[in-house]
Amino acid sequence: YPENCFYVPGINYQFNIGDRPITGLMRLSDSVLGIFKKLSDSDSTIYYGEVKTVASRLYAASSTAANISALAITPGSKTIGCLNQFCTCNLLDHNIFLSEQGVFETVTGQASATLERYASHHSYYVDKKLLKEENLDNAMAVGCDNWYYLFLNNKAYVADVTIHSEPQHDTTQQYEFYMYTDLPTVKSCYRWNNEILIGDDNGCIYMFGTDFRDEYLDDERNVLSRPVKCYWETRPIDFGYPTKAKTTKTLTLNYMVLNRTKFDYGYKTVDDARVISDTVDTKEKEFVVGYPRTTQIKEKIRKVMFVSFFVESNNDKDCEFDRISVTYTLQDKYRGV
Questions:
Q1: Are the beta carbons of 280 and 252 closer than 8 angstroms?
Q2: How far apart are CA 245 and CA 107, in angstroms?
Q3: Which long-range contacts (CB under 8 A, 24 or more apart) does 172-178 make?
Q4: Residue 33 φ/ψ, nearest 5 degrees
Q5: What pLDDT score was predicted for residue 11?
Q6: What pLDDT score does 16 carry?
Q7: N or C: which end of the chain has fewer CB within 10 A?
Q8: What pLDDT does residue 191 have?
Q9: What dihedral angle (degrees, nearest 10) is formed by the CA atoms of 140, 109, 33, 135?
Q10: How far apart are the C-alpha atoms of 18 and 183, rounded to whole Å?
């Protein structure tokens, strides 16, 4: 350890920060320390700590005051709380935590005690499922390569903070979320050599593999494997005309061929009727590996108000796509993509 180093415990009576326990510490913009708490009626949910130079006679060699560095604490707003100390992550330009209302990111460019809302909401499209999870207070998170991994029960809510989906109420862009299911019950998680490691309640340590097979333990502790199933679906789309019926003409899919690729894609109507439009399978075709490919089919979905599109893979082959494009008509007139 270097000389003259010291440890300042983050507990209430040392900092004299309110009357509720601290649930998280994160560095905000301009080297400001964010001190988070749960939502309560008697305390702020965030405090700002900033090192300032002050005059003090306590450490002066003479009666003349000396300049020392001190951690000045300023109370902030009482709006959005942080659930626990295990769900905060500092990613590149993103300071993320889990609250009672979902996943939030601090407003890092305006770290100020005068802000009414010091964080913005970014999990609107998964909150209906996320906030109904049991033991939400026991969630754990870890960040890696601009991905926020939130482990809860036997699931993982994974947010790509570099990609934003449709905004909530046309104001705040939302993170692109993915859900991993059928995981072991996660009791610990951390990053090692830029890889995510998780520990379960049986003392086993797991990590994400590079193939498309899922290894698991049966009741007799034997290691078995099964294909990784994946499913992606858009939200219901109205093409900008929620009160008018549309008819689709073509469906175009852009995808990458990194390995042997096989997956289905199609659409769903409002009554949850699923239709598989086509299957992409590179087994019978010679493609240059690593280059993007495009497939287009004629898909006439007649007079729909809302429609969703999906991509699904139930095998151990690669599945990586970039974009789905749809051409459609409105009252028999071409409107675009």
A1: no
A2: 40
A3: 172/120, 172/121, 172/122, 172/124, 173/122, 174/122, 174/123, 174/124, 174/125, 175/103, 175/122, 175/123, 175/148, 177/123, 177/125, 177/126
A4: -90, 120
A5: 43
A6: 54
A7: N
A8: 87
A9: -20
A10: 38
For residues 263 and 317, the answer to whether their CB atoms sit within 8 Å is yes
Inter-residue contact 187 to 130 (CB < 8 Å):
no
Q: Which residues of 293-332 are buried (b: 16+ CB within 10 A; e: fewer)?
A: beeeeebebeebeebbbbbbbebbbbbebeebebbbeeee
Residue type for position 238: D
Pairing mode of beta strands 246-256, 292-298: antiparallel
* pLDDT for the residue 271: 75
CB-based contact 226:280 (threshold 8 Å): no
Distance CA 10, CA 202 (A): 31
The helix (run of H) or strand (run of E) holding residue 13 is helix 12-15
Quick one: how far is CA 191 from the chain centroid? 16
CA atoms of 114 and 200, how far apart (whole Å) = 42
pLDDT value for 12: 41
Record the tokens describing residue 46, joined without a space.
Answer: 């965030």
Per-10-residue mean pLDDT, the chain, length 337? 44 57 82 85 84 63 62 81 89 88 79 64 90 91 91 91 66 83 86 87 82 76 82 86 88 80 86 83 66 84 89 83 86 65
pLDDT of 114 reads 55
Judge whether 53 and 72 are in contact, CB under 8 Å.
no
CA distance 281 to 31: 51
